[in-house]
Amino acid sequence: MSKGKFKKLFKENRNARGEEAHTVRKIVFIILIVFILLFAIGGVAGYSYVKSALEPVDENSEEKIDVEIPIGSSTSTIAGILEENGIIKNDLIFRFYIKFKNESDFQAGNYTFSPSMTIDEIIESLKSGKLVLESTQRVTIPEGLTVEQIAEIYSNHFSFTSEEFLEKVNDEEYIKQLIDEYPLLLTEEILHEDVKTPLEGYLYAITYDFYEENPSIESIVEMMLEQTQSVMAPYFEQIDEAGMTIHEAITFASIIEKETGKLDQRNEISGVFHNRLDVDMPLQTDPTVIYAKGEHTERVLYEDLEIESPYNTYKVKGLPVGPISNFAESSLEAVLNPVESDYLYFLHDRQGNIHFAETLEEHNQNKAEHLGDDE
């Protein structure tokens, strides 16, 4: 090949490579432009989406929506409740927003929100615990009541009858629905064929605020179950470590509740019952006899002790088949923290003082000394 031809070929190759490199640069440039545009569009779209999610659901709305924030709700739970009720547009964006602004300490309660409220207005309301509506009624449910007694109290405040309340809480299909909704609290144990009332013991004793004139029976029951669950939750692990089910713990707590109204006696009485259970001795506690009898009595007679019932602890060993009333938290704590002793017996004198004994002989002496002919 001549020198001239070689130069010509080299020049042509160089030009071809130059054109190829130019083409590659153009393609890379175009791709970069496309990526930049996509990123910009995505950023704008993302910004618009977030901005929209933080705006009121409907700034012109005059609708009022009642929302309950249960005790112990996490920010995730609260965000979910607000989105579900149409108060915010997006629970994830709401959670990011409150985390970015370092907002916390939201208060449980029954609120009335509006879709027209801003995110900051909602947050402020949750922080202050400010309820838009005042409660229409307050109903106090004392400790140591049966479901029948609770039904009677509610029937005196609202439009339904105690019979309607009892019909609902004994409806097997409704109970199964509640078991699905509260799996940590309610189990199939409450549907045992010998249990008189499935929710006995599970309707917590406290003062409840109501924000509507005539709440449904279902809303009342579920509000009470929420309260029971919030009280029980911190003790779940301890109950499990004690070798008890939730149902057994509540049953035990109800017996302690009915045995004494004095807080300083509950742990000691619990210790006696634990000792009896340990030696496979019947609990022989009168409140279970009264529950088995099904009617209030000032004094348990010897003939009452013969009642054949899975609740009568003179006839059955161990705990009865279910709770005999609702309970206070102190009774549950007593179940889990019994006073250690060798006592197997106790009795209350006429002044309400309690006397313990290790043997039946000592117990009978206490009876003669403190009760005379009453026993």
UniProtKB/TrEMBL annotation:
Coiled-coil blocks: none
Membrane-crossing residue ranges in chain numbering: 27-50
Recorded topology in the membrane: Single-pass membrane protein
Subcellular location: Cell membrane
Feature type site, description Important for catalytic activity: E259
Reactions catalysed, as given in the entry: a peptidoglycan chain = a peptidoglycan chain with N-acetyl-1,6-anhydromuramyl-[peptide] at the reducing end + a peptidoglycan chain with N-acetylglucosamine at the non-reducing end
InterPro entries: MLTG-like
Keywords, in A-Z order: Cell membrane, Cell wall biogenesis/degradation, Lyase, Membrane, Transmembrane, Transmembrane helix
E.C. numbers: 4.2.2.29
Top EC category: lyase
Family: Belongs to the transglycosylase MltG family.
UniProt function note: Functions as a peptidoglycan terminase that cleaves nascent peptidoglycan strands endolytically to terminate their elongation.
HAMAP family: MltG (MF_02065)
Protein's UniProt name: Endolytic murein transglycosylase
UniProt gene name: mltG
